[in-house]
Amino acid sequence: MQSVAQLLSAMQADIGRYLGNDLACISPIDGESLASLRVDSPEQVQEKVGAAHAAFLQWRMVPAPRRGELVRLFGDELRSNKEILGKLVTIETGKILQEGLGEVQEMIDICDFAVGLSRQLYGLTIASERPGHRMMETWHPLGVVAVISAFNFPVAVWSWNAALAFACGDSVVWKPSEKAPLTAIAVQALFEKAMARFGADAPAGLSQLVIGGQDCGAALVDDTRVPLVSATGSTRMGKAVAERCARRLARTLFELGGNNAMIVAPSADLELSTRAIVFSAVGTAGQRCTSLRRLFVHDDVAERLLPRLKTVYASLPVGNPLDEGTLVGPLIDEAALQGMQLALERARAEGGKVHGGEPVQVGKGGYYARPALVEMPSQTGIMHHETFAPILYVVRYQTLEQAIAMNNAVAQGLSSSIFTTDVREAERFMSAGGSDCGIANVNIGPSGAEIGGAFGGEKDSGGGRESGSDAWKAYMRRATNTVNYSDALPLAQGIRFDI
Ligand code: UN1
Predict the structure, then answer these.
(1) Are 350 and 382 in contact (CB under 8 A)?
(2) In what order do the strands lie in the sheet with 439-442?
(3) Whose CA is nearest to atom 7 of ligand 1?
(4) Between helices 156-168 and 181-198, what is the axis angle to 10°?
(5) Separation of 259 CA from ligand 1 center, angstroms?
(6) Is residue 27 part of a domain?
(7) Quick check: CB of 288 below 6 Å from ligand 1?
(8) Does 448 contact ligand 1 (Cβ within 6 A)?
């Protein structure tokens, strides 16, 4: 196996700049120590914000299509380093290699999107009520964008924010998860390579990396030079950040908890449903915010679907995520495995019948578990919680109304899906009275969202939108400009003001 040092140096990342004795980097694959880093003090965070702010003042004046060129060069770096970076993602987070590569692919895709976007930052021209006037909206760069990311998508989520932010004329300060700083160091190095190829009009401080924990996050969130904080992680973290940002009326963009459901209707293609259920419930060992956690199966198909699911679950290859053939890698740490076992105990106490879920020994370290399928008598208390582990609760239903009500009954509103070939059911699920989630899919699971759509959820999921569609507007400020090209001063609302 290539060592982390080799992977980093292949990406020309100078790990020496970051070494220290504050933060131990542990691979969830085997519990092995990968590196030990120094963390930034709150003062150092402030300095980095200062550098990013100075860079912003220059960057905002660079024409947007030229800014897009920098993102294009960065996308090229990602293309040439996809295998190495994908592997580092696997080593640092434990997701299987195909998912590590998929994550880098998402970065490449959002770069392509942002390059196109850099020529499409359109504003509207608005019909003025005043004669001889023209009114229009103009989108301007916003400022320093703080990105706080989670361990489970250590590099893709930053890219969704950063690629748009750079094209929009902003600078970025990134605080990655303390559980995944090495991939962030690699990405920063690749971005610096793109900057060097780009030329002198990319100001030095454009992308800043902050390594550290909560106090670093707080320093970022409280800094008045940061007009937008984009944070991905737990709902608890999001609420704490929201409060601090609200105190200074800063903008926030949140992607928080998910407790995503799928409805399998009587007319569903059961083979397709089975594949989607397994991929979205056990992929990334259930550690995606889009992971499938609640399955509502119609009585008419339960007897055909559930035995098949149990068979697949019992034979899922759990193991080292670097090995080909492994579908389920480790959980991130011991606390995650304990959280999973506690949730299963509670599910049993609430009348659940648990299949699988036991810890699995793989090699000499790491925290692995067999994914669990839990038949529940109804949607009980534990099902309202997001446990970041591969647990899938199954409840049977009789009517679509019941199933939609159960889908919507939890506090989280990120992703949802229905499997049906009945067009009326599909449309009802997507209608105003259907799923209340930010993502409502038909015949595709809740995970694996493409970057082209605006990714995000409602309710406790934070209400943010990242990546595609018109998500870019969060990274810019809108000015309304009214121009009088007449020699009169007609006031609005028919008011006369003679002097
Ligand atoms: C996350 O889990 O934090 O839809 C993001 C998906 C991925 C992104 C998930 N594209 O599963």
Answers:
(1) yes
(2) 353-356, 372-375, 391-397, 292-298, 260-264, 415-419, 439-442
(3) 448
(4) 30
(5) 13
(6) yes
(7) yes
(8) yes
Beta bridge partners of 297: 264, 396
Same domain, 437 and 470: no
Q: How far is CA 362 from CA 42, 329, 415, 434, in A?
A: 39, 10, 32, 43
468 lies in some domain: yes
Q: Quick one: which of 206, 170, 202 has its CA closest to 188?
A: 206
331 and 308 within one domain: yes
- 229/104 same-domain check: yes
Angle between helices 156-168 and 64-80 (to 10 degrees): 150
CA distance 487 to 294: 66
396, 343, 232, 84: CA torsion to nearest 10: -100
Q: Is the CB of 53 under 6 A from ligand 1?
A: no
Helices (H), 60-213: 64-80, 82-93, 97-117, 156-168, 181-198
Q: Which amino acid, one-letter code, is at 219? A: A
Alpha-carbon distance 483 to 453, whole Å? 35
Ligand 1 atom showing the smallest separation from residue 287 Cα: 2
Phi-psi group of 320: left, alpha or beta (phi > 0 → left; psi -120 to 50 → alpha; rest → beta): beta
**Number of residues written out for the chain:** 499
Task: Compute, in degrees rounded to 10, the torsion defined by CA atoms 197, 202, 208, 209.
Answer: -10
Number of structural domains found in the chain: 2
Residues 225 and 267 in one domain: no
Residues with catalytic roles: 255, 289
Q: Are residues 241 and 281 in the same domain?
A: no
Return per-residue pLDDT of the chain as tens, 499 residues: 568 999 999 999 999 999 999 999 999 999 999 999 999 999 999 999 999 999 999 999 999 999 999 999 999 999 999 999 999 999 999 999 999 999 999 999 999 999 999 999 999 999 999 999 999 999 999 999 999 999 999 999 999 999 999 999 999 999 999 999 999 999 999 999 999 999 999 999 999 999 999 999 999 999 999 999 999 999 999 999 999 999 999 999 999 999 999 999 999 999 999 999 999 999 999 999 999 999 999 999 999 999 999 999 999 999 999 999 999 999 999 999 999 999 999 999 999 999 999 999 998 899 999 999 999 999 999 999 999 999 999 999 999 999 999 999 999 999 999 999 999 999 999 999 999 999 999 999 999 999 999 999 999 999 999 999 999 999 999 999 999 999 988 888 888 888 8
Asked whether residue 212 is assigned to any structural domain, the reply reads yes
- Structural domain including 59 reads 4-256+462-481
Chain centre distance of CA 374: 27
- Pocket lining: 48 vs ligand 1, CB cutoff 6 Å: no
Quote the tokens at residue 165.
Answer: 């932010």
How far does residue 414's CA lie from ligand 1's centre (Å)? 10
**Whose structure tokens read 């770096």?**
77
Residues 124 and 9 in one domain: yes
Residue 50 CB-density burial (10 A; 0-12 exposed, 13-18 middle, 19+ buried): middle
